[in-house]
């Protein structure tokens, strides 16, 4: 049977690829046969990810990019196109989680969430979609969050700008999916729950009280393990999902069910 998850000959761009879920996904793309462009602000941290991907034998480049700045994104995508000639897959993974409720957070923190989590997807897609339209093919995967559809009342987990920005990602995903399906481009979103990453290891994973509470209400009884998001990302990035459009797949151990 044909391997529908085979990405040989494809070029994947991963934003926020310097650590965590982005780094894991980039390596998964390479293992599936794709060449990979790693984008992040911290170029020095991309080097370790680049070295791991080079071990797979795939071609990989590390490109400095601030997804909140249009010129930075434009230049980064042009570098990718100059290197590989085309882009087949865009994983919009760059994101931030700013704590605070609307009664206490600053306007700056609110804007930071939307600039990275929503504007970043807009800018990256803006400079990738035109060549996808020309070629009649493209796979765009936007990393949202389970917190796009649920919220938490625990003080340490109140992140209203995060909830709002990740919900906005779902609206943007649906709009893009409807507009670009005619060009052979699929656009879908993934909603991870709690995974250990650079973003969470120094905060949520340090709180025994929080983890005990999370595990008690989550049907799986635990957070996500490293690599458990890769299957969903690969599915939506491959021809296995050729007729899947504008969908939101939650990867949360069943947490959104309770």
From TrEMBL:
<dbReference type="Pfam" id="PF00106">
    <property type="entry name" value="adh_short"/>
</dbReference>
<comment type="similarity">
    <text>Belongs to the short-chain dehydrogenases/reductases (SDR) family.</text>
</comment>
<dbReference type="GO" id="GO:0016616">
    <property type="term" value="F:oxidoreductase activity, acting on the CH-OH group of donors, NAD or NADP as acceptor"/>
</dbReference>
<dbReference type="InterPro" id="IPR002347">
    <property type="entry name" value="SDR_fam"/>
</dbReference>
<protein>
    <submittedName>
        <fullName>Short-chain dehydrogenase</fullName>
    </submittedName>
</protein>
<keyword id="KW-0560">Oxidoreductase</keyword>
<dbReference type="GO" id="GO:0048038">
    <property type="term" value="F:quinone binding"/>
</dbReference>
<dbReference type="GO" id="GO:0008206">
    <property type="term" value="P:bile acid metabolic process"/>
</dbReference>
<dbReference type="InterPro" id="IPR036291">
    <property type="entry name" value="NAD(P)-bd_dom_sf"/>
</dbReference>
<dbReference type="InterPro" id="IPR020904">
    <property type="entry name" value="Sc_DH/Rdtase_CS"/>
</dbReference>
<dbReference type="GO" id="GO:0006633">
    <property type="term" value="P:fatty acid biosynthetic process"/>
</dbReference>
């Amino acid at each position: 049977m044909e391997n529908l998850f085979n990405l040989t000959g494809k070029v994947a761009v991963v934003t926020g690829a310097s650590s965590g879920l982005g780094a894991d996904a980039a390596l998964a793309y390479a293992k599936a046969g794709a060449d990979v462009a790693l984008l992040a602000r911290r170029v020095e941290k991309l080097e370790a990810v680049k070295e791991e991907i080079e071990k797979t034998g795939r071609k990989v480049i590390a490109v400095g990019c601030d997804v909140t700045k249009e010129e930075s994104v434009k230049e980064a995508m042009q570098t990718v196109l100059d290197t590989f000639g085309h882009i087949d897959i865009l994983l919009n993974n760059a994101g931030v989680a700013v704590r605070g409720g609307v009664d206490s957070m600053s306007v700056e923190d609110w804007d930071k969430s939307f600039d990275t989590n929503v504007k970043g997807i807009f800018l990256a897609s803006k400079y990738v979609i035109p060549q996808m339209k020309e070629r009649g093919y493209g796979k765009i995967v936007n990393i949202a969050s389970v917190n796009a559809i649920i919220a938490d009342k625990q003080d340490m987990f109140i992140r209203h700008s995060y909830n709002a920005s990740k919900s906005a990602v779902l609206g943007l995903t649906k709009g893009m999916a409807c507009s670009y399906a005619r060009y052979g481009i699929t656009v879908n979103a993934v909603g991870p729950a709690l995974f250990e990453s650079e973003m969470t290891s120094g905060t949520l994973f340090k709180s025994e009280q929080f983890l005990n509470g999370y595990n008690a209400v989550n049907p799986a009884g635990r957070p996500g393990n490293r690599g458990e998001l890769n299957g969903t990302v690969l599915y939506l990035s491959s021809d296995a999902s050729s007729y899947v459009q504008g969908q939101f797949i939650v990867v949360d151990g069943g947490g959104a069910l309770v």
